[in-house]
Every structure is written in C-alpha cells, then in structure tokens.
Specification:
With 473 residues, this protein is of the alpha+beta class. The chain is built from 15 helices and 18 strands. It folds into two domains: 15-115, Nucleic acid-binding proteins (OB fold (Dihydrolipoamide Acetyltransferase, E2P), Beta Barrel); 144-292 and 353-461, BirA Bifunctional Protein, domain 2. 33% of the residues lie in helices and 25% in strands. The strands form four sheets. Strands 6-10-11-18-17-16-15-14 form an eight-stranded mixed sheet, sandwiched between helices. Strands 1-2-3-5-4 form a five-stranded mixed β-barrel. It has a three-stranded antiparallel sheet with strand order 7-9-8, with no helix packed on it. The longest helix has 23 residues, at 146-168. The chain starts with 14 loop residues before the first helix and ends in a 20-residue tail after the last helix.
C-alpha cells in the first residue's frame, strides 16, 4: 500500500476553475468531456451510503462536490477513504458530471489522503459563533465562515488599489525603521525594547513620519509607506496595539491639496474594489461622491454641539463645560486640548458622511505648520467617515527653530507626566536645518478604511490576528 500522506499533490484544476469551465455545460456535453482532472481540498461535508459517498471539498477558491464509488477506485483506496472524516485534506482525480439534481460533481477514479485532521471542525450551524474564539482561532474562523475570508480578500484588494493609486501619481514606495531610538511622529505611548549588541533602548515606532520627512529633505519629493505602527494604549473596537497605516508626503503641496488627493484616492479605491461610490456601513448609507464636507473645528462645535462663544474663548469656561459633560481632563490641559476633547465626544460620532475638519489648535499639533493668518491654529485637517477618524494631514512644519520650540514644549509635558507627549528629536531638527521644501503629509488608518468598506463593526474583524489577553485556563 502506498503512503497515505504524500509530501505534495499535483493539481490540474481548482474548484473555481471547475465551476467556471464546466458549470455552463449541459449533462450530455459533460459526458462527452471525458478528460480526467486532479483536484484537492478539505472535506467539509460527507454523506455516506455504504458503497458510495458524496463529499464536498473546499480549496482556496471555493467548494465542489465529489462522488466516491467503491467500484470505481481500488479496494485499498476505498478502505482508506472509509477512514476519512470531515476536516481531512484529500486529493481526487476524476471526470466531471452532473447529478440528477443538476449539481456539478467530480467522479473519483483515484483518491489520496493528503492530511489527517486530528480535531473535529466546529459544526456548521452551532460551531464557531463565539466572537472571542473566532479571533483567537482565526484559522478555524476562516475554515467555517466564508464571509470572514471575503473580508480579508477585500482587504488585500483595497491595499493593492491604494498602492496602485500612489504609484500612478509618481510616488515612491519606501520602508522606514520599525525600531527607532526616538519614537516620534505621533502623540502616543510607545512600546520599549532593548538591543543587546548596541547596548541601547529602542522603541517600536508609533509613526514613520519623521523618517519619511527626512527622505523629503534628501530629495525624494513624493514618498509613501504602508506598514505597521505600534502604540502601547488601550484595546477597543477601534484600536489595536499594532495596526496598519498609510503615510505619504508630497513636496510643494499644502494640506488643501491633500484634501483633493484624498477624495480622488477614496473614489479610486471604491471604484476598483466595489464598483460604487455609495456604501452601507452599520445601517448608514455613506456617499463618497465629491465634494466632501469641510468644516472648522470651532464651527463644528458651534453648529453641531451648540457650544457657546464663552466656552470657545475661555479655558476656564471650557474646562467647566467639559466637566458638566463628564469628559475626563487633566488640570494641565490647555484650552486647545480641551476643545479637541469636546469635539471628540460631542461632534465626531455624528460625522457620518466624509467630512474634513480643519483649524486644529497649535498646542496639539507639534509637527504642523502654523496658519499665516491665525497662528493659534495650524494648517491641518482630520477626515471623519462613519463617526470616526480615518485620516490626519497637515502642511508640514519646516522651520527648524519653531520645530525645536515645539519639541521642547512636548518634553515639558512629558516631564509633567504626559506619557503620550513626544520626545525631542535633535537629528530631525538637524535635518530641517538643511532645508525641507514646502511639504504636506497625511496618515490614513488602513484598518479603519477596511472596516468601512467591508461593513465591519470592530477593528478585530479586519485584522487576521488581533491582540487579546492571554486566555485563562
């Protein structure tokens, strides 16, 4: 008897190819198509009638039925087949026909057990329904829930469409360090590690921003990166400690130019992946057609949350108002940060249609260029869709003196106990002293984009292996 667990198996056709090629054929035509094909996959259904069995096998492209008859294969092979279970991987060679019910089926002439499943799969209707179990055992989730696989197929297509868009716009895709001696580019708490050979502390990056802008200084006028960021913060339906970001920088552009580019990007992705500019997300219809809404942070507080002028003009009034709204604040928070937190709680959840919010306070934007007319705000926008932030962009601060002062303010905040405040990056200031052209940059959360376009309520639904607490046995 030959080995029952071969190292490989030559496949002539996949399930999807079989359906595409033979699906349109009538039964009589199939009978004349007597060629033999090899196909392989996991057994996901089995009906045993003694001397014959119908099984369904599933490969990476779909599923198809197979018919195993005792009188069509060798006695040894049939004995092996009778020991097979749902979950086993099997190779089948045979020709295609239609059953009396019209189902396309492969009639086995030869079979091979490729891999034995030692654990039973979850039962189809009552199996892997526990959400936590699905995230912990994503491999089972993918086996039994076809809609989950489709989410990650779409995720791959979305990322590819984004990459194609930027390459066609003459952007250069680059890679920057994941481990950094100084974690900069975002207001966030980093993960820390230690490199033994160098004898130094390193941090997993919270953003690639400062390295990408160094490249602009070096003459790479248009760069983008799609990669992971790491932030040692809370976990929620919108946050995971490691997540995928798109960041791109464009020399000689402003944040207003990036608004136009962002609208183009989203409509390109929607057209390429979904074929529409209108989606449904958690019961809301969202139209991505241009032009998108534009609103300043101050106007959004006034118009959408009925925040009075006294709150907008006075830190003390803003602090008192935030306390009435039960918004957690620090006594050290400045007026701009308080207004930003009011926005987060009172306005952001209602921004369903794509909306650019502009006019962010300078004190919470340490890397953004000040507005020429109103220095208390910066040339920055955040994009909100479906009630959550999707992107953050600004005209970059390229004045090394101003940048040093902003870093020093951040250092003071860290020394006062703010663990999310940014570090002083002297080398980045040095880079700016060599001159960076007028530049605009943007970061877009890939996971949140995928959530939107796949109608997924949680970020864990669009990350293959989300982080979770260790399961207590």
């Amino acid at each position: 008897m030959e080995k029952t667990s071969p190292a490989g198996y030559h496949i002539d056709i996949t399930a999807a190819e079989a359906v595409e090629r033979f699906g349109p054929m009538e039964a009589e035509t199939l009978e004349r198509e007597s060629m033999s094909y090899a196909i392989a996959g996991r057994i996901v259904a089995l009906r045993d009638f003694g001397k014959a069995s119908f099984i369904h096998i599933k490969d990476g492209t779909g599923r198809i039925q197979a018919y195993i008859r005792k009188d069509r294969i060798s006695e040894d092979k049939f004995k092996i087949f009778k020991l097979m279970d749902i979950g086993d991987f099997i190779g089948i060679r045979g020709s295609f026909f239609r059953t009396r019910t019209g189902e396309l089926t492969i009639l086995a002439e030869d079979i091979a057990l490729l891999t034995k499943s030692l654990r039973p799969l979850p039962e189809k209707w009552h199996g892997l329904t526990d959400v936590e179990a699905r995230y912990r055992q994503r491999y089972l989730d993918l086996i039994v829930n076809d809609d989950v696989k489709e989410v990650f197929v779409l995720r791959s297509r979305i990322i590819q469409a984004i990459r194609d868009f930027f390459i066609k716009k003459d952007f250069l895709e680059v890679e920057t360090p994941m481990m950094q001696p100084i974690p900069g580019g975002a207001t966030a708490r980093p993960f820390k590690t230690f490199h033994n050979a160098l004898g130094m502390e390193l941090y997993l990056r919270v953003a690639p921003e400062l390295y990408l802008k160094r490249l602009v200084v070096g003459g790479l006028d248009r760069v983008f990166e799609i990669n992971r960021n790491f932030r040692n913060e809370g976990i929620s339906i919108r946050h995971n400690p490691e997540f995928t970001m798109l960041e791109f920088y464009m020399a000689y552009a402003t944040y207003e130019d990036l608004m136009v580019l962002t609208e183009e990007l989203f409509n390109h992705v929607l057209r390429e992946v979904l074929g529409t500019s209108v989606i449904e997300y958690q019961g809301e219809t969202i139209d991505f057609s241009s032009p998108w809404n534009r609103l300043s942070l101050i106007d959004s507080l006034k118009d959408m949350a009925d925040v009075g002028d006294e709150v907008l003009k006075s830190r003390e009034q803003a602090l008192e108002f935030a306390e009435k709204c039960q918004i957690s604040l620090s006594e050290k928070d400045g007026h701009g940060k308080i207004l930003a937190k009011l926005f987060d709680h009172l306005v952001e959840p209602d921004l369903i249609r794509p909306t650019f919010i502009t006019g962010y306070p300078t004190e919470i934007s340490p890397l953004s260029r000040r507005n020429d007319e109103t220095p208390d705000i910066v040339d920055r926008f955040e994009l909100f869709i479906g009630g959550r932030e999707i992107a953050n962009a600004f005209t970059e601060l390229n004045d090394p003196v101003d940048q040093r002062e902003r870093f020093e303010s951040q250092v003071a905040l860290r020394e006062a106990g703010d663990k999310e405040a940014q570090f002083m990056d002297k080398d980045y200031v040095t880079a700016l002293e060599y001159g960076m052209p007028p530049t605009a940059g943007e970061g877009i959360g890939i996971d949140r984009v995928v959530m939107l376009l796949t109608d997924s309520p949680s970020i864990r639904d669009v990350i293959l292996f989300p982080h979770m607490r260790t399961k207590q046995v």
